[in-house]
Structures are given as structure tokens and as C-alpha cells.
Design a protein that fits this description.
Elements: E1 3-8, H1 14-20, H2 23-31, E2 38-42, E3 55-60, H3 72-86, E4 90-94, H4 96-104, E5 108-111, E6 117-125, E7 141-148, E8 150-154, E9 160-164, E10 172-175, E11 179-182, H5 190-200, H6 208-214, H7 219-238
Parallel strand pairs: 1-2, 1-3, 3-4, 4-11
Antiparallel strand pairs: 5-8, 6-7, 6-9, 9-10, 10-11
Helix pairs in contact: 3-4
Pfam families: GATase
InterPro entries: ChyE-like (IPR044992), Class_I_gatase-like (IPR029062), GATASE (IPR017926)
Protein name: GMP synthase
Length: 239
């Protein structure tokens, strides 16, 4: 039977892991789908990418690496992404995954001119989101968690922009029928966002008290992952 593969593109802070788990744990929790067979592929640990024939869907996680560093595992993953899209395999890229998708499909990803975006922020949907399988029937504005210094500066030519905010004009996009990139983190909880703020503040000056006061749970953003899991489940059942 085909599986949902989570491509683990890195690991989080040690303190965050010990308290809340890692990227793949958060994704699985927010998928909230016991019907899916899920396999984790740790590409930084040089685990091999799955065959396309085995993929009902693919999620590419966030990472503390930078897309522009073009590490060998990242370059291999970047070369793999276009075939997923061509073969119409359901794909969701989160943060790093979003940026790598944009780059792999002909867009440009690099550092944001206004620096880091961190904390619970407001996301606004484009009109095109009303017809989208993941974003339809959602409020035009909703809260989501973010932490990124790089961004998809230019989307691929055939991409449909789905969401934006004051900081980032490309917070979500779709290519084809089943490939999405989201800059925000639909897998985060408020506790995870708070942990990131505290950890990042050890190396970078942040208005910590203000950021922590403004965090909240983000059920609408979390719903994106659940909907993606339901879409993949349909792919398995229709196979």
C-alpha cells in the first residue's frame, strides 16, 4: 500500500525536542489521521528518498538549514521535487520545504530584506484560495506561527499565490492540482512557538515578552495539515 512520506529536513533545538518532540512528531499530531501509513525519511542523515510508486503523498518539513547553502542532501531533494509535481503526487512543503519547492520549480528563494519573521502572525488569503482544496471555506484572515529568515522571494511562473501578510507576500502557493508550499507552520502549537522564541532569543535580540504575550493556538492554520492528510487518504483509497 502507498504511504505518506514525511521528509525530515532537519531537527529542532535540543530543549524543544526534549519537551515537545521534533518536526515529524508535530506534523503527525496535526495530521490527526490514524488511517494513513506514515514513514519518516531523514534526508540529513542520508536516508534514501522513496520511489515515486510508493508515494501517496509527501510532506517536506522545516529545517534550521538555509536553502541558499545548497547542502548536498538539499540539492538532491530539490532535484526530486519537480518529478513529484509532474507525477501529480500530493505534496506539501513547510517553511524550508516551501522555499525549496519554490526554488526547485523555477522561483527564487533567499533572505528576506526585512529580516526574520517570528511569532504568531496574521495571514490573509487571496481570492484564489476560495477554489483551493486545502484553503477553501477558511476565514479570509487567520493566525499562524512563523519563524524564518529566508523566504520564497519569487514564485514559480505557473504558481498560484494563495496567502500573504504584511511581512511576506508569498506565505502560501500551489503548483498544479496537488502541490502546496506554506511559509507558516501549520504543525506548530503555542508551546512550540513559545519554545522557538525563547531559543532564538539566546542568539538574536528579540522583544521576547511582547512576542510571548502575543502567541496563541492556531486552529485554522493547523487545519491545513489535517486537510492535506485527508487528501492523501483519498489517494490511497482510490489507488
Amino acid at each position: 500500500m502507498k504511504k505518506l512520506f514525511i521528509i525530515k529536513a532537519g531537527t529542532t533545538f535540543k530543549n524543544t525536542v526534549s519537551n515537545y518532540g521534533d518536526f515529524e512528531d508535530w506534523v503527525i499530531e496535526k495530521l490527526d489521521n490514524e488511517n494513513l501509513e506514515i514513514e519518516i525519511i531523514d534526508v540529513q542523515a542520508k536516508e534514501a528518498l522513496p520511489s515515486f510508486e510508493d508515494c501517496a503523498g509527501v510532506i517536506i518539513t522545516g529545517s534550521h538549514s538555509m536553502v541558499t547553502d545548497e547542502e548536498p542532501w538539499s540539492v538532491e531533494l530539490e532535484k526530486w521535487i519537480p518529478s513529484l509535481v509532474e507525477k501529480d503526487i500530493a505534496l506539501l512543503g513547510i517553511c524550508y520545504g516551501h522555499q525549496l519547492m519554490a526554488k526547485s520549480l523555477g522561483g527564487v528563494s533567499s533572505y528576506h530584506k526585512n529580516g526574520m519573521e517570528i511569532g504568531t502572525v496574521e495571514i490573509e488569503l487571496e481570492e484564489e484560495a476560495k477554489e483551493d482544496r486545502l484553503f477553501n471555506n477558511l476565514p479570509k484572515k487567520f493566525k499562524a506561527h512563523t519563524i524564518h529568515s529566508q523566504t520564497a522571494l519569487t514564485l514559480p511562473k505557473n504558481a498560484i499565490r494563495l496567502a500573504y501578510n504584511k511581512h511576506d507576500s508569498n506565505h502560501a502557493f500551489r503548483v498544479g492540482k496537488k502541490a502546496w508550499g506554506v511559509q507558516f507552520h501549520p504543525e506548530y502549537s503555542r508551546n512550540i512557538m513559545n519554545s522557538y522564541i525563547k531559543e532564538v532569543s539566546k542568539a538574536k535580540e528579540l522583544p521576547v515578552e511582547k512576542l510571548l504575550k502575543e502567541t496563541e493556538e492556531t486552529p485554522i492554520a493547523n487545519l491545513i495539515l489535517k486537510r492535506f492528510g485527508e487528501l492523501v487518504e483519498k489517494e490511497v483509497n482510490n489507488d
